[in-house]
Structures are given as structure tokens and as C-alpha cells.
Specification:
Blueprint: H1 57-60, E1 74-78, H2 79-85, E2 91-92, H3 94-99, E3 109-113, E4 123-126, E5 128-129, H4 131-139, E6 143-146
Parallel strand pairs: 1-3, 2-4, 3-5, 4-6
């Protein structure tokens, strides 16, 4: 929500404006459609990008790069963050990380990265591990469990 949306109020409960009920109503004759032109005709529609014949902003701005709409969304968590939030011997799963607000939002794959130090023995389950993260977890006496599939990560909106 934007700040300029606040003053517009709730529109879903507003009564529809009676148009075409005679000139005395204030919305008679042309019923708020003006005189002639495309907007006065039945079935008229204007594209959301139309800017009065001017080159629309969406066409003026150049396209840059490539956006892969099929790419998997990867949530990342560093080993240092695990060291701060978990006790020795804890089991770290995607569900537990979600409750601790480390892996927020919707994602397809959880990846553990090796930034920071790990001194606690943890049993970490994730879809991917960086080489340094896997080394740090095993060096601390922990266990690395690679999850397969993304079904366990499909989240429900709360």
C-alpha cells in the first residue's frame, strides 16, 4: 500500500452512481462520457499503458538483460547464522529455519553457504551446500543431509 492510496477510502461498499436518468440528475444526456470520441462509444477500452498518443513509458525504457521466469528461487543461509541461533546437537531443517526467520518468503531450494564460523555440532538438512559450508559443518562434528525434491518447501500463506 502506498501513502497516496490511504485517502481514497474503501470503494467496495460505495453505491453506484446513477447515470442516464435525465439532465436534472447531473449525470444525464451523455452520462459522464463527454461528447464524441472513442471514450463515448459503447465497448471502448484503452490499454493501461496508453499515454494520449505519446510513446508509452514501458516502450521508452530499454530492455536490459534476461529474466528467466523458470529459474528456481534459492534461499541462502550462512553457517555463521546457524552458529548464532542454534545450540549444539540441534537439527536444522527448512521448517525450523522458517520459524527462526532465516529462510523467509517463498523459495524452491535452500542453500547453506560457508560464511562465518561454526563451532557447534549440528545436523543440517538442505537442498544444496557450498563446499566450504559442508567442510565447516563436518569439521565441527555435524552432519550434512542433502534433501531432494522441492515438495517439502511449498509454503502456505499464513
Amino acid at each position: 500500500m502506498n501513502l497516496n492510496d490511504v485517502h481514497r477510502g474503501i470503494l467496495k461498499n460505495r453505491r453506484r452512481r446513477p447515470v442516464g436518468r435525465g439532465t436534472g440528475s447531473g449525470h444525464g444526456k451523455t452520462s459522464g462520457r463527454g461528447h464524441k470520441g472513442d471514450g463515448s462509444r459503447a465497448g471502448a477500452s484503452v490499454k493501461p499503458t496508453f499515454q494520449g498518443g505519446m510513446m508509452p513509458l514501458v516502450r521508452r525504457i530499454p530492455k536490459r538483460g534476461f529474466n528467466n521466469k523458470w529459474a528456481r528461487i534459492v534461499a541462502i543461509v550462512n553457517v555463521g547464522e546457524l552458529d548464532e541461533l542454534f545450540k549444539g546437537g540441534d537439527e536444522v531443517t527448512p521448517e525450523v529455519l522458517r520459524t527462526k526467520n532465516l529462510a523467509k518468503g517463498r523459495y524452491d531450494v535452500l542453500k547453506i553457504l560457508g560464511e562465518g564460523n561454526l563451532k557447534k555440532r549440528l545436523k543440517v538438512s538442505a537442498h544444496r551446500f557450498s563446499k566450504s559450508a559442508a567442510e565447516k559443518i563436518t569439521a565441527a562434528g555435524g552432519q550434512v543431509i542433502v534433501l531432494t525434491g522441492t515438495k517439502s518447501l511449498q509454503t502456505k500463506k499464513a
